[in-house]
Amino acid sequence: MPTMTKLRAFIALPLPEATLRIIAKLQQELATALPGIRWMKPATIHLTLAFLGDIAEDSLEKLGTSMLSIGGLQPPVTATFSGLGAFPSCHRPRVVWLGLDGGNTLNQLRRAVKAELDILQLPIDVRPFVPHLTLGRSRKIVPCAERILDSFSDRYYASTQLEQLVLYESRLGPRGARHRPRYTVQLSGSQP
Predict the structure, then answer these.
(1) Taking 80 as the threshold, does the pLDDT of residue 174 lie above it?
(2) Do 108 and 189 contact (CB within 8 A), yes or no?
(3) In sequence order, what are the beta bridge partners of 8?
(4) What confidence tens digit (pLDDT) does each residue in 103-131 have?
(5) What secondary structure letter does DSSP report for 175?
(6) Residue 43: DSSP 8-state
(7) Which of 97, 106, 152, 163 has the fewest CB neighbours in a 10 Å radius?
């Protein structure tokens, strides 16, 4: 019996180049104030809707087909980026993130993705959905992180249209994860 190939995968909304440039400038500004954070490469930053973990390759094929119906029914998401925070807290940041508000359209899209995953009996992260963009990670205590992140918390950074839904394959390596788009669909539904 052949072994089934498993791939690490997630579903996300990629960001336009102009937004990634704004994020890169923000990361540069933060890098001087928060040494010890490993900053994400801007090209790898995206809004994750569903982390799937390791799933069978044939499940990716089925999910790619399901994504076509999601894209045809769901409109693009107007996203506003503002405020910084950290998980688990600003006092002990392991993940530094940029806040994101996509309104009801984003919540509706997330529900549609979850419904398709449920139909296909694919796992989804059970933690509550908190829209954010991961900017950097740390394994060490970062001195003064809470004060510094708080000084950035009220800033507005950008607004943009997120128009694509992408199923990514993620390969972990010594230089971090590499994300390869497996299926991409346009969000072409009409606004409610």
Answers:
(1) no
(2) no
(3) 54
(4) 999 999 999 999 999 999 987 777 889 99
(5) T
(6) G
(7) 163
Query: In the structure, what pLDDT confidence band is assigned to residue 1 with cuts at 50, 70 and 90?
Result: very low
| d(C-alpha 50, C-alpha 161), whole Å | 19
Instruction: Output the pLDDT for position 3.
Output: 55
- Judged by DSSP in three states, 190 sits in coil
Is-contact 138 93, C-beta < 8 A?
A: yes
In the block, residue with structure tokens 């994750």: 48
Name the helix (H) or strand (E) containing 112. Answer: helix 103-119
What is the C-alpha separation between 45 and 14, in angstroms, rounded?
7
Q: Quick one: 31 exposed, middle or buried, by C-beta within 10 A (0-12, 13-18, 19+)?
A: middle
Report which of 95, 85, 100, 88 is spatially closest to residue 13, judged by C-alpha positions: 100
pLDDT digits (tens, 9 = 90+) for 134-167: 999 998 888 889 999 998 888 888 999 999 999 9
Question: Any idea what the Cα angle at residue 36 is, between residues 27 and 87, rounded to 5°?
Answer: 70
Amino acid at the residue 121: Q
CA nearest neighbour of 22 among 133, 154, 157 = 157
Q: At what angle do helices 57-73 and 103-119 cross, to 10 degrees?
A: 140
Quote the mean pLDDT of the chain: 90
Q: What are phi and psi of 22, to 5 degrees?
A: -65, -40
What domains does the chain contain, in order, with CATH numbers?
6-78+104-134+164-186 (3.90.1140.10)
Largest CA distance in the chain: 58
